[in-house]
User: Fold Curli biogenesis system outer membrane secretion channel CsgG from Sporomusa malonica.
Amino acid sequence: MAKKHVSIVLIGFFLLSCLVGVFSPSTVWAGEKKRIGVVDFDNASQVSDRAMGRGISDILVNELVKNKSYQVIEREQLAQMMREKKLGIDGFSTGPSQYVKFEGLDYLVVGKIVEAGAQQVNLFGLATQTKVKVVLSVRMIDANSGNILWAEQAEGAVNLGSLNDNSGRTIFAEGQSNSAFSEAARKAVTKVVDKINQVNPLEGFVVQCSGKKVYIDLGREQGVQAGQSYTIFREGNVITHPVTGRILGAEKHDVATIKIISVENDMAIGEVQGSAFGLQAGDKVRKK
Assistant:
């Protein structure tokens, strides 16, 4: 089977899809939230286009806004912080290798696109299979200490099939490739978001209980999907640092597990897995 690379021009369509529908993450939710900043991704792939890094970071920002545990700071606000401190994209000064604290910021997400492209495999001249792939290398940094909380690669891939004409040429629409690149990027970003959300899981409240049905104040806008599992819990005693007196959190007692069966924009219904005894409005809920 002969292999050949799809023209880099197709990547341009992907860039447009990344940038379409981007909105400013200005929503501020009530309650204590962790402030997180996302730096435009560096493009280290074979495609030399600076806009690609911004497109990927925009997708990541839009997904993070769904988690009520985070407040995503504005891009220009973060850029201004870095200009004032003369920092590189990773929060380190451009001179000595020394991390500079970001006051008012808890986490910094930096990354690069290490691969973005498509490859075609001709199946005996009758059909063609195209694999579209986007690979990201991402780090999440503690904005106060500079410690790297985690670092890993995330890959998103989409396989497309198409027929060949009588001359053996691929019948492959540009619109199809555009959609595939966008989908591959979103798959990679979804893996990154899942990792970030593990640091501060999405949390909400139980608003009503009816038998084994539990209504929560998280919905489609926060990324809730049917089939997901959430833990219902209650907070107990406050935990404070014995030396500094700083409040670190609170005891958490798991009460039940629910499986989401119905989702609306700002609300979801879950079914209790096991006993529903003692559940009440005001209990907290977090994604497992």
